[in-house]
Amino acid sequence: MILKILLILNIPLFLFADIVSFSITPKEYHSRKVKILDAKKLNFSDVHELSGLTYIKGHLYAVSDQGILYLFDIKLEKDKIAALSLQKQYRLTNKNSEPFKKKKRDAESICIYKKGFLISFEGKNRVLYCSVKGQKLKKMKLNVLLNDKRRYQDANKGLESVVYSKKYGILTAPELPLKGNNQNYHTIYARKKIWKFKAKGAVTDITFMDTDRVIVLLREYSYFTRHRVTSLVRVNLNKCDNRSVCQSEILALLDSANGYKIDNFEGLTKVGKNKFLMVSDDNENFFQKTLLVLFEVKN
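User: That's the sequence. What structure does it adopt?
Assistant: C-alpha cells below.
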C-alpha cells in the first residue's frame, strides 16, 4: 500500500535510503593522479557533522563536531561503496564517563592507536587516546609549539587532524599555520619534530599513504560566492631540506567553479592499497550534504 502511494505521488524511493549514489565530478573529468571511484550521499537522520574517519576491516568509524563516535559497517566491492549501515554510536566522554561539555567536544579527526583510537579536538586543542566506545583513557603529549592556544589563528582553527605510525609516532596539524610562522607553509607536528609543505587552503585531515608519504586533505571556501575547492596533497616526510620543507605534490584540485559538486570535506582514511575514503561535514545544515567519496591515487 505504501509503495502504491509513493508511486502515485511520484516520490522517488531513493529518498528513503540511507545512502544514495551521487556524482561529484563534472562530465568532462580527467585526472592523471586521482580517480574518483564512487560517491554516496548519506541520509541517516541522526548522523551529522562528520569530521574524521578511520577504517578497520569492513568497519568505518567516524567522529563528529557534536562529540559523537559512530560505528558503521561498510562493504567496498568492485571499487564501489556497495553498502553502509549504522551499527552503534557513542558519546565521547571523560574518564568518569561524563560527556564532554560543548566547548570540549569538537572532535575533528580519528585514527587507530593500540586498542582504541586517537582523537584530535579543536576549541580546546588536544589529542586524546580513547577506548573503542569513546571514553578518554589518556591525554597525549604533543609538540610544545602546539600548547599555547594564543598562537592559533582562531579558536575554531585548531587540531583538525591526527594520524599515527610506528616510524613517526603521533602526527597532527592545525587547520592554519600558527601565528608567527610563514603563512605560505603548513606544518605537520610530531612530538619532537616538524615537517613543512607548501599548499593553499586549510588542513582538514591527514592519513598515511605508505611508510613515508602522507596525503593531506585541504579546503578553501568563500562565504560570499559559495566557491569551494578541495585539494589532496601528497607529502614525503623522508625527503625534506634543511629548513624542514618537504617534497610535495598536488594530486587533485576539485574546484566547484569547474563543475565539481563538492561540499565541506573534512575526514580522510585509507581503505586499501592506494584507495581512500573522504567525508564531508554537513554542519547540520539543510543546504549541505554528507558525502562519502571513494577514490584511488595513481602511482
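Residues 20-297 form a domain with the Neuraminidase fold (CATH 2.120.10).
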